[in-house]
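Retro notes, item 3 of 5
We never archived the inputs for the iron/sulfur cluster complex last cycle. Fixing that now. Sequence and ligand:
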Amino acid sequence: MIYRELCGEKVSLLGMGNMRLPTAGQGEHIDVDKAQAIIDRAYAAGVNYFDTAFRYHGGESETFIGQALAKYPRDSWLLASKLPGHMMQRGADGLLHFNAGLAGQAPVRSVAEVFERQLEKCGVDHFDFYLLHNVCESSYDFYMDEQIGVVPYLLEQQKKGRIRHLGFSTHGQAEVIDQFLSAWEGVFGFVQLQLNYLDWRLQGADKKVAAVARHGAKVVVMEPCRGGRLADINPRCNALLKQARPQASIASWAFDFVKSMPEVAVVLSGMSTLEQLEDNLATFADDTPLTPAQHRLLLEDVVGDLIDLVPCTGCRYCTEGCPQGLDIPRLIALQNEMSYESHDAAYFILRGFKPQARPGACIGCGACAKICPQGIDVPGVLRAFAARLAADERA
Ligand code: SF4
Ligand code: SF4
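Structure as it came back at the time:
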């Protein structure tokens, strides 16, 4: 097992994500015996970073992982969990309500109630790593709300030794990440990002990594295989990768891409079977970075085969002259993401936009297209994007 340093701790580069554990019956409950076998094998092989969250497996994940690790000395494993602030809001009654993603949860008076419940469920007296779950455009105000006081409360818990290291996960844009880290400079030692070779450009992950590194924080990677999609791409791409490295699995390319980055301290994989775990253990026994040629093969040939992106570089030359004040590169980035697949996160972000900031607000004046150094037909792209959104809403 390869180890790296995160907030002064020696962490296994392969981290166990506990959001895709094996399930029993109709899939609604964790198959405890199978999941325990995965945890035991991971622990025996040197994995020491275990990641969970309030909402994983409908709330069962925290309870399971606490029990699964309880037989091992507490100082031999590191537990990370997350506060579900991205699914909470302050109601007119002053209580904190959970949204539809956590339907059935009774409102709470403060985040302290959630935090205490999490410690209790995990059966621990402290979290080694504690994260704000998905700090993004739509949750930013909740996490910054002075009356709710999320960060000050967590800093208090850190002083008491109930949290050792603070971080946050995010699906937000690089600008939001930068803004949040600036607002709490020095507080968050790590940021959990969706990072893989497909999202390097598709979701602007390159800019997100740079924003995190600028603030001296480390990256914990989520979705390195994009939910398993990069473990079996398509016949043409699979053949390309097999030709370049006959012995390596297709999934190992995705892991090697993120392993090659010095900013990365932990790569989470939500492993559902012992076979996946064994494949990952083999990949994480070797720290050889990808060569420049292998890097190009992924970012140019494989990604080029998978998606047809609008080639916006995000230079923002077009935004100043837009009479509608549209954030054009942002909209194009979202359209790129959604042209690849119906991505829930992109819809989630767009729903937070006011109507006058959405693609349908473009009046087609063409000022942006005249100035764009990439020659992009911006009004045409936004028109098509607006039509797609309208069609999706009708569906
Ligand atoms: S064409 Fe649309 S996006 Fe471009 S400047 Fe005019 S209103 Fe803005
Ligand atoms: S000018 Fe062109 S490349 Fe630059 S941000 Fe606007 S659309 Fe993108």
